[in-house]
Amino acid sequence: MRAKLERLLKIACVERWIDHRGYELLCMRFLFALVIHDSVSWSRTFSALPKPNGLAKLGWEPLNQALLFFGHKETLDVIRHAIWVPLAIYVAGIIPIPAIVSLLVVTVATGTLENSDGGIGHSYQIVSLILLAQLGSHILTTVGERRTGPSPWLKPGLAAQNHATHLAKVTIAAAYVVCGVSKLIKSDFLWVMNSPLLSVQMTKANWREYYNTLELKDDFVTTRLPQLIVEYPNFARLFFGAGLALELGTLLALRGRRWALAVGLSLVLFHSMLDWVMSLTFWTHMFCIVVFFVNVPGIRESLREGKDGTTDL
Amino acid sequence: MTTPEADNPGVSRWNRLRRTPLALLAAMVMALYLIGDQYPFSNYPMYANFGEQALVFFLSDGEGEPYAMKRVFNKSASDAKKIYKSYLEDACMAADLEENEATLEMKRAAGGKVLTQLLTEHKRKDFAEETSRSPVLQARLRRVWLDESDAFHDEVILLAEESLAP
Question: What domain range is B123 assigned to?
C-alpha cells in the first residue's frame, strides 16, 4: 500500500518548466491581453461600496475613493481605450513590470468594486491572479539579473518570459485545485455523496436563466435531467465525482506540454458541460486554459513531446 | 528542454523552486484557501456545499409578472440573489440566528435593500420603457426544494415593492 502511494506521489509530483518558443509566448501574451480587456465590465458604474471586499475592506478612505474613481462612467470610458497602451506593451514583451502594474490596477480596482456590491462573483479573479504571478516572476528575474547588456526590466529574455508563463500555469492550476479542496472541506468530504442534490441547483439554474431573459427553455436539461439525477444518484455521483477529480488533478497540467494539452482539453469539455447543464459559463477561465494549457500554436510540439519532455521538431 | 540559467544567469533563485516540484502550487493553494473571497483572491467556494433547497431572486410588475432581469438592470438574477443573501446573513448575524431561522420580516428587509440598491445603482438606459406597464416594481423570491420522496416543489414569496412613479 505504502509503495503504491509512493509510486502515485512520484507520478503526480512532477513539474516541468517548459521552454516555449518565442512565437508561442507572443501568441499567449496576445490572446491573454484580449482576455484581460474582456474581463473588465466597462459598462458597470459604482458610486458606493455597500459590502466592502478585498482592498476596500481595509476601510482606508483615500483608497476607497481611488477605487470608486474606477467606477465612474467617464473614467471607464477613458480607460477602456487607454488600456490598449499597456496591453500592447505587455504583448510586445517589453518593460513588463510597469505594463503589468497598470493592468493590475485596472483589473483589481474594477473587480473589487464588482465584489463590493454584495454579490461575490468568481469569473475574473483568475485574470488578476495571473497578472500578479507574472508580475512576481518579472520582479524576481529582474532583481536576480546580474548580466551586463540590455536591462532585463526593459526587455526580459526568453527564459524570463517562460518563467512568467509557467507561473501563469501554476496559478490556473492552483485556482482549480483550491476549488476542489473547498468542495471537499466545506462539505466535510461528503461532496460526491451529496452531489445528486445538484439536481436542485440545476432546477434553480433553469429558473434563474428564465428570469434573466424570460426565454422559456423546454429541452432535455430543463425538463428531464434533474429528475433523472434524483432517480439515478450513483450515476450522478460518478459524473460529478469525475468533475471534482479533474479539478483536483489540474496540477498534472504542470507535468509537461502533452499533459497540459490533455488537462486543458478536459477542462474545456468540463466547462462546456457545466454551461450545458447549469448555465455556468466561465468564459474567462476557459480562455485562460486555451491560452496557457492548450496552447494552440504549440499543439504540434505538445503531441511530439517525449517522456523526458524533449520534442523532436 | 533548455536550462533557463544558460540564457539568464540571474534566475538561480527560481532553480531552487524548480528542485521542489509543485511547491509553489501547494503554497498558492494554501494561501488562496486561507485568504478566501477577498478580491483578487478566492477559494472558489461556489457549489462547495449545497442543501435540499435553492433560491432564485427575480423582479416583477405589480401583478407578479416577471421582468427580464438583464433587460432592466445591469445585474443578473444570480447577482441579485447573492446581494440578497449577503444582507440576510448580516441581519441573521445581528440577531444571532442561523440563516435558515431568518424571519419573513428579515427576508423582506433584505429584499427591500436589494431593490433599493438595484434602483439607485444598476438601472439600464431603457429601464423606464421596459417597466412602463406597471407603477410598481416588486422583488420576489422563488424557493425550489426536493422533498423526502424525491419530488421537486417550489413556492414564490413577495419580498419588497417600490413605486416607480416619477
Answer: 50-163
A44, A170, A197 ranked by CB distance to B25: nearest: A170
ipTM: 0.91
- Give yes or no: residues B77 and B128 share one domain: yes
Say how many domains are in chain B: 2
Chain A segment 94-113 residues within 8 A of B by beta carbon are: 107-108, 111-112
Report the alpha-carbon distance of residue B126 to residue B116 in Å, rounded: 18
Distance from the B165 Cα atom to the nearest Cα atom in chain A, whole angstroms: 23
Residues whose CB falls within 8 Å of the CB of residue A33, separated by 6 or more in sequence, listed in order: A87, A88, A90, A91
CB-based contact B28 A170, cutoff 8 Å? yes
Do B29 and B73 have their domain in common?
Answer: no
Q: Which residues of B touch A14 (CB under 8 A)?
A: 21
User: With contacts defined as CB-CB under 8 Å, which chain B residues touch A141?
Assistant: 8, 10-11, 14
Residues B127 and B147 placed together within one structural domain of the fold: yes
Pair (B31, B60) in one structural domain: no
Give tens-digit pLDDT for A123-155: 999 999 999 999 999 998 887 755 555 667 788
Residue A262's closest CA among A297, A299, A287?
A299
Q: In this structure, are B40 and B63 located in the same domain?
A: no
Name the 3-class secondary structure at A311.
strand
* CA-based nearest residue in chain B for residue A117: B83
Contact B9/A at CB under 8 A: yes
**With an 8 Å Cβ cutoff, are B52 and A200 in contact?**
yes
Tell me which chain B residues have a C-beta less than 8 angstroms from the C-beta of A241: none
Give the mean model confidence (pLDDT) for residues A289-306. Answer: 93
Residue whose entry in the numeric block shows the C-alpha cell 416619477? B166
Model pLDDT for residues A85-107, shown as the tens digit of each residue: 999 999 999 999 999 999 999 99
* pLDDT band with cut points at 50, 70 and 90 for residue A217: confident
Determine the average pLDDT of the residues in B116-130. Answer: 89
Tens of pLDDT along B64-88?
999 999 999 988 999 999 999 999 9
